[in-house]
Amino acid sequence: ETDLAESLVNAGFVVVGVNSPYGSSAVTLSQTSEVVGVSPKLKDIMSRYPGSRPELITYRKAEHALWVNDVEFLVRELRSIPSSALQHIDWDQINIVGFSHGGFAAIDACERIDACRSSVNMDGYTYEQEVPTKLKHHLTLFQSGTAHYLRDLCNGRTGCFIQEINDCPLNHEGFSDAIYSKWPFTRFTGNQCGDKSVE
């Protein structure tokens, strides 16, 4: 996500990143440099998968609620800070972008935050959660190799748009820093899969 954030900043946008480590196998928190491992409950659920799929869905839904609440909290707190560094931000014109689990959180967070104008879900699974039939302005990017289940996300929904990336042999990790931020730009230059050395 770092490459995407830097690209947006270079284009003149103000970017605030939220790293939700709840579902990661391991993550380092910058405040402490302590590696936080996957939760014992999730580890147990995954050790019994696919038989534990209903438990996984329940776990991910609770996790999803945390992510959406985190985004709402962050926007609310940043708006309330009397700082000259934040004064030039138009808090009534924000957009929320997320990858993987964060991609679906972006949809819900945008729907719940009045100031949000649009959301982008990059290859993010919905974990069987309900998606409103009317969205503000939402784009889902997915690649057919592993995220074909997103193809029908916009069926019967307004304000919802889908873009399938099927011209590159990508897997879910293909939306990494090295690929997904390059794809929209490099597809017009003839090298549609970005830097071949990182695939």
Mean pLDDT rating: 78
Uncertain residue ranges: 185-191, 194-199
CA distance, first residue to last residue = 16 Å
**Helix/strand/pairing class, anyone?**
alpha/beta
Global morphology: globular
Q: What topology, given as strand order, has the largest sheet?
A: 3-4-5-6
- What percent of residues adopt helix (DSSP H or I)? 25-40%
Structure summary, number of beta strands? 6
SSE series? HEEHHEHEEEH
What's the gyration radius in Å? 18 Å
- Counting copies of identical and different chains, the oligomeric state is single chain
Number of helices: 5
Largest β-sheet summary: 4 strands, parallel
What share of residues are in beta strands? 15-25%
Topology overview:
Blueprint lengths: L1 H9 L15 E4 L4 E4 L2 H8 L5 H28 L13 E6 L1 H12 L3 E7 L11 E9 L15 E7 L18 H4 L13
Parallel strand pairs: 3-4, 4-5, 5-6
Antiparallel strand pairs: 1-2
Helix pairs in contact: 3-4
